[in-house]
Amino acid sequence: MSKQPLEHLSFTVAQHSVAGLKPQNEDAIGIRIPQGLTLANKGAVAVIADGVSAAEAGKEASETCVHNFLSDYYSTPDSWGVKKSTTQVLTALNRWLFGQGRSFSDVQKGYVSTFSSVIFKSQTAHIFHVGDSRIYRLRGNDLEQLTRDHTTFISEEQSYLARAMGLDVKLDVDYRNVDLEIGDIFFLSTDGIHDFVKDRDLRFVLGALVGEPAEQAFEACCTNLVEIALENNSRDNLSCQILRVESFPKQSIDDISRKLSSLPFPPTLEVGMILDGYRIERELHASNRSQVYLVFDVDNNQRYCMKTPSVNFDDDLAYIDRFVMESWIGNRINNPHVAKVVGSDKSKSCLYYLTEYIDGITLERWIKENPKPAVQDVILLVQQIVKGIRAFHNRETLHQDIKPGNILIDRNGQVKIIDFGSCYIQGIAEIATPLESQGILGTAAYSAPEVVLKAKSTVQSDIFSLAVIVYEMLTGVPPFGGKLEACRTSKAYLKTKYIPCYDINPLIPIWIDGAVKKGLRFNPELRYEDVSEFLHELQKPNPKYKEAQRAALLEANPLLFWQALSGLLFLALCLSLLR
Questions:
Q1: Would you kindly state where each structural domain of the chain is located, as residue ranges?
Q2: 254-356 classified as CATH 1.10.287.130
Q3: Mean pLDDT (the chain, rounded)
Q4: Do domains 254-356 and 360-542 have the same CATH topology?
Q5: By C-alpha distance, which of 454, 349, 469 is closest to 401?
Q6: What are 435-444's pLDDT values in tens digits?
Q7: Which listed CATH number (3.40.1050.10, 1.10.3720.10, 3.40.50.620, 3.60.40.10) goes with 10-249?
Q8: HEC profile of 415-449
Q9: 360-542 domain in CATH 1.10.510.10?
Q10: 71-99, pLDDT tens digit by residue?
Q11: I need a labelling partner for 275 at 20 to 30 A (CA). Which of 42, 248, 362, 526 fits?
Q12: Which residues lie below 8 Å from residue 33, measured CB to CB, with a gap of 6+?
């Protein structure tokens, strides 16, 4: 039984599990409702598993599923969404169970278990399910089964599990999500109960909990359902869990304002001023949205970059929220090609954050200084950019503002991606907030069409931005004649014309242009699935672009093409006459 404070996700819960008429209980159940930021970022979890009776290690399998899932799920990065976190954990769990089961004469006799879990995060319930354990929801008087049984019937009395944990090396898990309402009752059970309790009886028993304040009633309800199933000749293990949603976070603008206003904006900073022990040496960058200064830590003799918010937005909560998130993101991405956010034990008097100081130039300046660079030099830099972007994607985070001005090259030629102000984080996006989004983020000249037209960003959107950069690096000019920045409609995009890289720089191989062109497709589904695929085709010639090369030769010099072709045909004819 557990009840959390009402200002957060809170529940009244109870669970019960008995062996019934069997000699041992092969079911496993578990509920975890953490506190504070963990509850906000990862949510609360209820999980139930039923070790398959025909399996010799069914009990070990179900216990492993519950115990390891509750532990491993909360070890995944906060930036990951619920679906990715759960999928990663279940895939690893399934492979371990399947591997253990291979020691048996038949894998189906090994470590096999059903698995059903509901994860409550913010104002949403995420359902994951494989096997024939079940999850129901009672809302008012409406009882709905949220899962479907993965069973195949041989006859009216005989059936077998078509899907389960540990049954196959590949795992297919059902997923769905539903919105929460205060008072929703979620019921999880193994087949020892739901196969022997009719839906009308289940609705009646759970219905008694609607509005019921007494915690003891929830435990009594679990016991009652077990007794009903036993009276109806259940000969299996019997397990169930009940969770009633008492509250979920509904932050008001005032709540958020109080949190975000805990630190004031910095004063106007001048060279020589000292703020919290950091001496301002010079301004590195300034825009209408932020300022970046080179500062010297007088305590440890280190130089850092200090980013401060612009006073133009001191009353814009959505802007302040994104600024605060920048350091949160930077602290969670550890990669040599992403600028490091620097932590400090010093207390802050105002709003700012520190990053490592990178002594070098922007990629924007590099492009100007290298109008027609060697292809291998471009690929070397792109390799590093891809590693940095991949570090974001591995954390289920989209940068959303990949452009030459946000890429630095230090004096050793090492690339660093900077500026996290436009990032999208799946794990944070799942948390409901009354703050309105800021619309299109990023820079129009480097943004994918779906970002501009629909404000929708994916991995393919970052790939599009990278392809724009690669085109600029190879040619010294933007793609599509520099018209991307002005496009605001589908018609405008369709009017643009792609100019091949080799038309501008004849030293560019046609297969490299083919890779860039694919990365610049207006339809995101026609681009690469991953930045690594894009890099691979930039490094390794793709045979399909040979046909494009022939077509390009025909278009560029049709007389030479037909002369060459005629010569080959004449040679073939002569050889045939000599035989």
A1: 10-249, 254-356, 360-542
A2: no
A3: 89
A4: no
A5: 469
A6: 666 555 789 9
A7: 3.60.40.10
A8: EEECCCCCCEEHHHHCCCCCCCCCCCCCCHHHCCH
A9: yes
A10: 999 999 999 999 999 999 999 999 999 99
A11: 362
A12: 2, 4, 9, 11, 13, 39, 44
Instruction: List CB contacts of 81: < 8 A, sequence separation 6 or more.
Output: 396, 426, 427, 429, 430
Percentage above 70 pLDDT, the chain: 88
pLDDT class for 32, splitting at 50, 70, 90? very high
Give dist(CA 529, CA 97) in Å, integer.
Answer: 30
Backbone angles phi, psi at 522, to 5 degrees: -70, -30
Output the six-digit token pair for 577. Answer: 């006459």
CB burial readout 72-107, b (16+ within 10 A) else e: bbbebbbbbbbbbbbbebbeebbebbbebbeeeeeb
**Are the C-beta atoms of residues 508 and 375 closer than 8 Å to each other?**
yes
- The backbone torsions φ and ψ at residue 34, rounded to the nearest 5 degrees and listed phi first, read -75, -175
Half-sphere exposure of 511 (CA within 13 A, CB side): 12
SS3 letters across 80-139: CCHHHHHHHHHHHHHHHHHHHHCCCCCHHHCCCECEEEEEEECCEEEEEEECCCEEEEEE
| Of residues 401, 490, 495, the one with CA closest to residue 440 | 401
Q: What is the largest CA-CA distance in the chain?
A: 103
pLDDT at 419 over 60: yes
The string of pLDDT tens digits covering residues 49-61 is 999 877 778 899 9
Residue 463 has pLDDT above 70, yes or no: yes
- Is 576 in a helix, a strand, or coil? helix
Residue 259 has pLDDT above 80, yes or no: no
Q: Which of 358, 319, 376 is nearest to 538 (CA)?
A: 376
The C-alpha angle with vertex 286 and arms to 280 and 292, in degrees rounded to 5, equals 40
Distance in angstroms (rounded) separating the CA atoms of residues 31 and 37? 18
Q: What percent of the chain has pLDDT over 90?
A: 73
The H-or-E segment that residue 461 falls in is helix 459-475
What confidence score (pLDDT) does residue 110 get? 80
The two three-digit tokens of residue 7, written as one number: 């200002």
